């Protein structure tokens, strides 16, 4: 290695490294699919293919911007022992974007918000109301409400997240919360979001949450 060439430092977070590798594999696959569709159109493929190819192009472009800007869920993957450090240091909590859907009951609809851990407690707070016509909106009675706020020892964990079931599932006082750490438009939600959610599952179990829910 020449004197002017600097080696990029290794990422100290192995989970983030794995999630980024999964992201790149997913994106390469979608780019390959998009290029095949464009090639098919150029050699005389049916024009009916133009609409799905165009939709795929928009989604792939949006996801590529996420990769370039480093704003995907993989960037907030937990470091080893991160929740343990949050317990040991006041004001050193963890907060990430997530979306939540109730498993059953009178409550309906998926909502975005903040999944947080601090002081041995896990919480999910719905995004605050907005006046811009986007996001949660002022008509949502749950806007700004912490719909989950519980000591970690009182939580029951669902099955450990996998690419087939990428959500982090927790239950508290009879209410089941289904938490996705990747947005719905994310092409890597199944594998990237699952890796990030599995990191939360592992560390919550280490902090005292019980893996007692059936798969």
Structure, described:
The mean pLDDT is 86. Helix 1 (14-42) packs antiparallel against helix 2 and helix 1 runs antiparallel to helix 4 (189-206). The chain folds into 2 domains: 14-75; 78-206, Roll (PH-domain like), CATH 2.30.29.30. Helix content is 34%, strand content 20%. It starts with 13 loop residues before the first helix and ends in a 9-residue tail after the last helix. Strand 6 and strand 7 form a beta hairpin. A 7-stranded antiparallel β-sheet has the order 4-3-2-1-7-6-5. The protein has helices at residues 14-42, 50-69, 82-88, 189-206; strands at 94-102, 111-118, 121-126, 146-151, 156-157, 168-172, 175-180. It is an alpha+beta fold and 215 residues long.
């Amino acid at each position: 290695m020449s004197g002017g060439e600097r080696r990029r430092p290794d990422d100290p977070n192995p989970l983030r490294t794995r999630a980024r590798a999964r992201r790149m594999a997913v994106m390469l696959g979608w780019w390959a699919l998009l290029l095949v569709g464009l090639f098919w159109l150029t050699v005389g493929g049916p024009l009916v293919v133009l609409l799905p190819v165009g939709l795929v192009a928009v989604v792939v472009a949006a996801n590529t911007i996420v990769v370039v800007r480093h704003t995907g869920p993989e960037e907030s993957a937990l470091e080893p022992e991160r929740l343990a450090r949050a317990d040991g240091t006041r004001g050193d909590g963890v907060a990430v974007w997530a979306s939540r859907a109730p498993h059953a009951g009178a409550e309906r609809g998926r909502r975005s918000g903040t999944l947080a851990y601090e002081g041995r407690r896990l919480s999910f707070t719905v995004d605050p109301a907005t006046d811009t016509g986007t996001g949660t909106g002022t008509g949502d009675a749950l806007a700004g409400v912490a719909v989950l706020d519980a000591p970690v020892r009182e939580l029951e964990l669902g099955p450990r997240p996998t690419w087939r079931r990428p959500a982090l599932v927790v239950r508290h006082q009879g209410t089941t919360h289904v938490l996705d750490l990747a947005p719905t438009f994310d092409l890597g939600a199944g594998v990237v979001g699952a890796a990030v959610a599995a990191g939360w599952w592992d560390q919550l179990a280490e902090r005292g949450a019980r893996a007692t829910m059936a798969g």
